[in-house]
Design goal:
Layout: H1 8-11, H2 24-44, H3 49-55, H4 66-74, E1 79-83, H5 89-97, E2 100-104, H6 121-127, H7 135-148, H8 155-172, H9 178-193, H10 200-213, E3 216-218, E4 223-225, H11 228-231, H12 234-240, E5 246-249, E6 267-271, H13 274-285, H14 294-302, H15 307-313, H16 321-327
Parallel strand pairs: 1-2, 3-6, 5-6
Antiparallel strand pairs: 3-4
Helix pairs in contact: 5-7, 7-13, 8-9
Length: 329
Amino acid sequence: MNSNNIPKHLKRYIVEQNYDRYSIIDHNVWSFIMEISIPFFKKHAHHTYFQGLKKTGITFDKIPSIERMNDKMNKFGWGAVAVRGFIPPAIFMEFQALGILPIACDMRSSEHLTYTPAPDIVHESAGHSPIIINEEYAHYLKEYGKIASRATFSDTDKKIYYAIRHLSDIKEDRNATSNQILEAEQALIDIKNSQSVPSEATLLSRLHWWTVEYGLIGSLDNPKIYGAGLLSSVGESQNCLDNNVKKIPLSIDCINYNYDITEQQPQLFVTKSFSELTDILYEFQKTMSYYNNKSKINNLFENDYNQDEIFELTQPNHLNQQDSKLIKL
């Protein structure tokens, strides 16, 4: 993706991957995750999974280069950029609408091999990129990005965004106490419970969660995995296929199901095909209160984040002494 084609207001979220900062341990964690993931997902993921890894530049023995991924994805009309951790949802959707996959550069710690609540390069690259080679699914992602960027949002949506970001940072912090984690979890629950009437942004986030993040495809008795949250977590993927997790045919009704990022999901939704995802998206679109000027919407969202906040969101977390030593290996 030519950087000249990216709007100026999106460029501020792009960072350098700084590949040299990954330690030997980081690369070993990556290769171990891929070693246990590929055999499982070859069997239980959508059939495009393995070819998708190769076609999007995912390396198996070391952390992938986002620049190389961008070059590979350019061949089928997509691109990739490096970002730092959570970026505002509306910004993420704008990237997606343009056919650009934002990839968080951070690598999960060895303590969180099978799952991390924080955006990391395992989830963002090996989770999100493989299924994009499917044209129907790629079309859904772009359409979702366009429509979601026009959704109305509330002040509570902003509070939820920051609460999720704080919770993920706390859970990934090796020095965090159990009480700090419980407090962050409860804060997120309290904010969500205070939202009596879900905004369009909230309802669309649920559709995104039950499809892009935790979606299954095929039949109810033998579904295949395509959601990025599952494709980046072998542990949760194994559990999700168990009969204890209810499988529900995907419909517009999925927007009435809230989700908890701190727990494994009690139910998942199974779509018959990727084209059905777009049909359901368009069904929801008909209920939305559209703004006529897209740039106005972007400005409305960005005005809620001053420049200092935006700068802070795109900076690396402070490394503790142990991390600094690892990077020097």
